[in-house]
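Much of what follows relies on a compact textual record of a protein's fold. Here is one such record, which you should read through line by line:
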Amino acid sequence: MKLFEHDNKAFYYATNVSKQGIEYISYLSFIKSKNSEQAIRYVIDTTCTDNRTNCSLKKAELEEKFLC
């Protein structure tokens, strides 16, 4: 899990890759206010349904889209 801080908020994010026949990727973001107990969790799951071909989006592009 990675952490960075910006504008009185702590941003945590992580990825998990599972390969059980097909590649399955989970992205998790957790944003917490440093001034209160408020927080939000953001989870994205993605997979390629055809394991014989490459997915059109690469992992770096997915991370840019979902975690930033």
Observations:
- DSSP finds one helix and four strands in the chain.
